[in-house]
Amino acid sequence: MTLILCLLACDSITFEEEKIDSEVLVDADGDGYYTGDDCDDQDSSRYPGAHENTSDGVDSNCDGEDDT
Ligand SMILES: [Ca+2]
Ligand SMILES: [Ca+2]
Ligand SMILES: [Ca+2]
User: Fold this and answer.
1) How far does residue 24's CA lie from ligand 3's centre (Å)?
2) How far away, in angstroms, is 20 Cα from ligand 2 center?
């Protein structure tokens, strides 16, 4: 009986670990965009759709280029 309980416990632990692994989305800078979408998750002024200040050397809107 204890063996069965152990197996059930082990299954639930594995399931929880897999669930955590699938939820790796992080919004470190709190701008509402997660890693993967946010090109700089350490800077809340940079995110997709942000206003692009031209010629400042920073890709603010995550389109891959500093619009000039
Ligand atoms: Ca972010
Ligand atoms: Ca950001
Ligand atoms: Ca810019």
Assistant:
1) 28
2) 23
Could you tell me the distance, in angstroms and rounded to a whole number, from the CA of residue 27 to the centre of ligand 2? 8
Distance 42 CA to ligand 1 centre (A): 7
Q: What percent of the chain has pLDDT over 90?
A: 54
Q: In b/e form, how buried is each residue of 9-38, taking b as 16+ CB within 10 angstroms?
A: eeeeeeeeeeeeeeeeeeeebebebeeeeb
Residue ranges in the chain whose pLDDT is less than 50: none
Q: Which of 68, 42, 46, 44 is nearest to 55 (CA)?
A: 68
Evaluate if pTM is beyond 0.85.
no
Residue in this structure with the two tokens 């790796």, named with its chain if needed: 24
Percent of the chain with pLDDT over 70: 65
